[in-house]
Amino acid sequence: MADGPVAEVLLQRLEAADGGLGSAELAAELGVEHQTVVGAVKSLQALGEIIEAELRSTKRWELTAEGEEIAREGSHEARVFRSVPPEGLPQSELMVDSVEDEVQRRLQLVQGGQAEKLGEKERSELRKRKLLTEVTLKTYWVSKGSAFSTSISKQETELSPEMISSGSWQDRPFKPYNFSAHGVLPDSGHLHPLLKVRTQFRQIFLEMGFTEMPTDNYIESSFWNFDALFQPQQHPARDQHDTFFLRDPAQAQQLPMDYVHRVKRTHSQGGYGSQGYKYNWKLDEARKNLLRTHTTSASARALYRLAQKKPFTAAKYFSIDRVFRNETLDATHLAEFHQIEGVVADHGLTLGHLMGVLREFFTKLGITQLRFKPTYNPYTEPSMEVFSYHQGLKKWVEVGNSGIFRPEMLLPMGLPENVSVIAWGLSLERPTMIKYGINNIRELVGHKVNLQMVYDSPLCRLDAERGPPSTQEAA
């Protein structure tokens, strides 16, 4: 515009106006969109009491797109009449000598701002034909405010350290803070990667017919966490450097004492074909409360409940929940993490069954190249570490641990002698499992991710440095 921004022009016209002016009339006078004037009004309102603006609503009639065409070209009926060829038509085909395009005349009245000259019935007929529509126009009646001025001074929106140190803030106008304003909503949100992986693991277990075990007791007794799993009381895992023990309450009071005595006898004297550990088993040691170091304590509880049901029925359990270790935090260790565990109890289960279930489980994760390596676990025999070939590292890495629970653990519970229990576990946080558990980690977090950073992470390197398994690959 030649005479400056709309806001400045509005103030100049308002200074010369007697009482006020309308935003619609000003827009027409300046030849700009009405919304441009409305924006200028709102900008001036934000500066304080420079102007006063009263919102007004008026109704007016406007032509539709088809109505504008008819006002310009004539009605459909008139255009048909004018399309009669110069040589004419037989009277039998056209009985009209001339026509007056009344529809076009009425629409041109509306177009010229004279809609009031049409009767209500005439406007109604045009509206039914979708040639005319009634719209509500919201305009502002603008008048001078108590602090009216034709000069616009920009209000400050931030208080800077320089303003405070120099004291200039005292002479500067600040924009009032709008406590009712809404913040900008984020475009979208994303679930945490571990929650996505956890959901995928849980769905796989459910598809395989497993039942989820209750794992809501983070505080566990040493009995369920260690003794019930046939771990001796002098085992290094019970040291305070490896386990978080509780001071208050320091001991668990409610234990199944019949089962406790059978566990005590198995540890100290042997039984069920085992010579035991031959030491003085102490109940006070078993009562010590701790933050559970693995969810296998929940598996022990579930198997004990299963043993009390007569007759025995096969069962498949799983759990995914938090465990705690008294670790020094570094690039490869956390004080808490999530353990994934699967347990199957049935008659006559063997190592072959375990390997078959593991193949099905990991195949559903997209892990097809598996190898198994013998290892030692305190409460499983035989035991196997599970390895998979890592395409990113071009090496074999450990992805889980597994085994068959020892009779010294199962028989004191009351399970039948010919019942075996196969089990396996892995960590949810391990980067290799995040990589394998999600087909596309970029889709997981919703933005670009450098997968090489995942491959090069300390935990991935730690697994890779173990080297390939030294035993035969499973058939």
In a few lines, what is going on in this structure?
The chain has 475 residues and is of the alpha+beta class. It is 34% helix and 20% strand. The chain has helices at 6-16, 23-30, 34-45, 65-73, 76-82, 102-111, 120-128, 161-166, 193-207, 222-225, 257-268, 283-287, 296-307, 351-364, 407-410, 431-437, 441-445, 451-455, 458-464, and strands at residues 21-22, 51-63, 132-144, 211-212, 219-221, 289-291, 315-324, 336-347, 370-377, 380-390, 395-405, 419-427.
Could you explain how this protein is built, in words?
34% of the residues lie in helices and 20% in strands. The protein is an alpha+beta fold and 475 residues long. The strands form three sheets. It has a seven-stranded mixed β-sheet with strand order 4-7-8-12-11-10-9, sandwiched between helices. It has a three-stranded antiparallel β-sheet with strand order 1-3-2, with helices on both faces.
